[in-house]
Amino acid sequence: MSQLKFLVVDETSFMRNEIRKTLGSHFAPCETFDAPDVKHAQVILNTQKIDVILSEGELPDMTGDAFLHWIREHNEFNKMPFIIVSSLGDREHVLTAIHSGVSEYITKPFTPDELINKTTSVLQKCGLIKKQQKAQNSLDILMGGGGGDKAKKVVKPTVVAAAGPFASRAAPPAKKPEAASGQAGSGSISPKTKIQLPIRFGELKSKCIIKESSLTKMVVTMLREDGIPPLFAEALFNVAPPENDKPVIIKGHVFNLKAAEENVNSAAFYVTITLSDNDPAKLEYLSKLISHK
Question: What is the per-residue DSSP string for 198-235?
């Protein structure tokens, strides 16, 4: 099989270099090309036989969706895998991309493992690389996400909190969440003690355990017996400020589901929720919440 050729389209050189470096180190030997906008990307597409495009959602001369639409309208490119890598992770943008024929959607910020896993999944579906012999867990297969043998750096595959956000030890058997309080760190956090948070997904309610939290995304552990929320479902949760103010209702949407164990009988799973509430007061409170000790 010939070397894979990737085209990375992003306005910022730093992001282009990071994506190229990650792809190059994992899929070597391969070739990676980059462009700061659609105009330069079109030149590369007309001179190179590109296998996969990874494009930012908002480019200087065109949106990622418009670029995707242009690709799908041209016969020489319309079967080409197209991955959007964007900071716009709300339900509306994701659904628009799906309707336009996107192959995968990655929300910034992301981990190198997330980029590799989702790109690998796309390459496998298109037959550009062979599928791994080891089957992914059932929820990964159901949602079309990358599982792999490596644990994500940010989303640690364990119900009981590990020591730090980059722990990669194997996950112990899932246990029933218990209520607890207290958090540590700032930015994207991984509590050393269990933080219980009631969340409503439509008619479904569950007392989840916070695993990771930032201003744009939250990862929680949920028991399978409570039910499984649908992808893109609205998530609503109340949080009580440390100062004992009135509860704050924060909104988000289900963006990813992953089994806690590589086992079809896994008792728990992880839910990634993108936070879509842009209320400045709520974001300010959320900032205090994730940095509260």
Answer: EEEETTEEEEEEEEEE-SSEEEEEEEGGG--PPTT-EE
